[in-house]
TrEMBL record:
It comes from the Bacteria. It comes from Blautia obeum. InterPro entries: vWA_TerF_C, VWF_A, vWFA_dom_sf. This is von Willebrand factor type A domain. Pfam families: vWA-TerF-like. Residues 66-244 form the VWFA domain.
């Protein structure tokens, strides 16, 4: 099993949908099209926010932010879209947007060599978001460039939808980027605005570039966080939400 298999784990078995003797096995994500109950995720997120607010200048239970997702769409991510892992991730991330976001939506982008903004994920469409939105995008699975999607997001939050409300970007990738120079320039520009990017590296990649961002010079302030996640399925909601939000909370406190 490759490192992506270690990340999410293989399903014990895929669902066979027998509509007739001629119907073959369906992709696992088809099982997830029914409404997913997020009440437990919401409850666990609430506990994390209460804990984070203790001794903090920011009451995270009352915090408002514009929440966005940048999701890797490179070739190595292919089977994670097909087996339901990305859909599960969206279902766990959406409660953050429902809690924080001023319009209750998770603004979403895909990235590979380029980038594409998608219809936002919300309480009405999230349960089939991969099939009905991501899989119908005009993106091709290719390499891994961070700069194009970050540039689009800067333009969106700075020029198209400007606001005094901070933008919190959750950036998920399984690989190192091939455009470090261009990404450095965008991250330095980002530091001029009310935008924080939480990078999440999944799998066994070293992510030397993302680790190096802590020491990046030339920024107005440290506007990025990084966490490595080897096996998301083994993380409880409390662990996952804490890892996603702890550096963002520190950024808010230090502004």
């Amino acid at each position: 099993m490759g490192f992506l298999g270690k990340l999410f784990g293989k399903k014990d078995e895929e669902a066979a949908v027998e509509l007739s003797s001629a119907v073959t096995q369906q992709p696992v994500y088809e099982e997830k099209l029914q409404t997913i109950d997020m009440s437990k995720h919401n409850e666990n997120l609430g506990k994390v926010l209460i804990d984070m607010s203790k001794g903090s200048k920011i009451d995270m239970t009352k915090h408002t932010a514009r929440v966005a997702l940048a999701m890797d769409y490179s070739g190595s991510m292919d089977w994670l879209y097909d087996n339901g892992s990305v859909q599960e991730t969206i279902s766990r991330l959406l409660p953050i947007a429902l809690r924080f976001d001023d319009n209750g939506e998770l603004e979403s982008w895909l990235f590979s060599n380029g980038a594409e903004r998608l219809k936002a994920a919300n309480a009405d469409n999230y349960s089939s978001y991969v099939k009905n939105v991501m899989k119908k995008a005009h993106m091709y699975m290719g390499g891994t460039n961070y700069a194009p999607v970050l540039k689009e997001m800067v333009t969106y939050y700075k020029d198209i939808e400007p606001s005094e409300i901070p933008a919190f970007i959750i950036f998920i990738t399984d690989g190192e980027n091939s455009d470090t120079f261009a990404t450095n320039a965008v991250i330095k520009e980002l530091s001029e605005y009310n935008i924080f990017v939480q990078f999440i590296g999944i799998g066994d990649e070293d992510f030397d570039y993302l680790k190096s961002l802590d020491d990046m010079k030339g920024r107005k302030h440290d506007n990025t966080g990084f966490t490595a996640v080897k096996d998301m399925n083994k993380m409880s909601d409390e662990q996952l939400y804490t890892e996603i939000l702890r550096q963002y909370k520190d950024w808010l406190n230090n502004k």
